[in-house]
Amino acid sequence: MNASAGTVEAPADRSLRTTLLPKRRRGPSISFPELVWLHHLRQDELKHHKRDPYEGPAETRYRAAIERFEEDNGPIVEAYWCTEEASAVAVTLKRRPLILPDVVRLHWATDWSTKDQPTLMALLYRCEALAVRVHEVLRDTSQRLAMQSLYTVMSYLLAFGETERAKNEQAVEQIERTTRQELKSINSYYHRAAVRSGQIVYVGGMLLGLLPLAGLIAVAILLRVADWSNVSVRIALVCFAAGGVGALISVMSRMNAGRVNVDWEFGKDTLRTLGALRPFVGGVFGVATFFALKSGVVALQVGDQTKSSYFYILFAFIAGFSERFARDMLLGATGETSAARGRPRGRAQQPDPTTEGDPLGAVPAES
Questions:
Q1: Domain check: are 148 and 224 in the same one?
Q2: Percent of the chain at pLDDT above 70?
Q3: Same domain, residue pair 103 and 229
Q4: Can you list the positions of beta strands (E) in the chain?
Q5: DSSP class per residue in 43-60
Q6: Which conformational region is residue 183 in: left (phi greater than 0), alpha (psi within -120 to 50 degrees), or beta?
Q7: Which DSSP state fits 361?
Q8: Do the Cβ atoms of 239 and 232 come closer than 8 Å?
Q9: Which band of pLDDT confidence, cut at 50, 70 and 90, is reported for residue 299?
Q10: pTM of structure
Q11: Could you tell me the CA-to-CA distances from 128 to 110, 111, 146 in Å, in that order?
């Protein structure tokens, strides 16, 4: 048997009861290299001891190990096992309930078969490094496509390493060129998908950030921290909410225009946290704009008093939508931008290298 590969169907029972109830473990966890070694011992027993297939002590140990491995990581849906050395690569798919995305993982143990083939080892290392980034950054279908592509490349390299052509330098150089070209294509796909994945995580964080924004307003009203019967207090709270909504709409509109740049390798938790903070920042700008207009620091005469609240809410929304608008309006009222207005227009200011990579700059300011 030159290689073994197969597809295992997902469990049919995905009811809420089977999802919530913990499964009974059959033994300690097992790593993929351990599983690969047990598979190698099983193949060695089958080959040298002339046992019937699926019989013998090595077969029993391997079956128990793969059952424990799939219990932790999900069914093995694709696998390539080397025949001469204890090396393999496999893809597992772990189902998750409801709308949660399934967990796709790429497992490998390749050192045994490539210890004397430095070129193949270097190519497999590049595949492994890219697989780690794909697993951490991408999600759903894009993750599965990238993982499947990497599995195809790695299994192809392992299969080539078992042939006589692996000792031919010209054949190795040809495989290296082909593999590098394929990895370049996969890496390009990863970058395109990672941009969209980072944006989705960031916007999801912003939507979550609206919940505590609404909670602050509700608590202020219920605990009578804010006097809801006062017209000015009501308008201030609405302006706070309008600024947060403006920040959300700003990011979504610029995302559709392709002007939102997030660093997806900061991690999902970091992007989600930064997104959750954005509506609060927009709300602060919104209520600050209301105070500036209400106090007269920014002169705005409204003829009809009944329409003044709509103007306040509109300006609060715009302040949350555009941080530059809020900054220019508030600072311009105090004369702090006079020096900037008098400065001659020249080349754009060069970015400060000390701020590069700062998570707070993940989303650029509005233009």
A1: no
A2: 73
A3: no
A4: 76-81, 88-94, 103-109
A5: HHHHHHS-PPTT-SHHHH
A6: alpha
A7: G
A8: no
A9: low
A10: 0.67
A11: 10, 12, 12
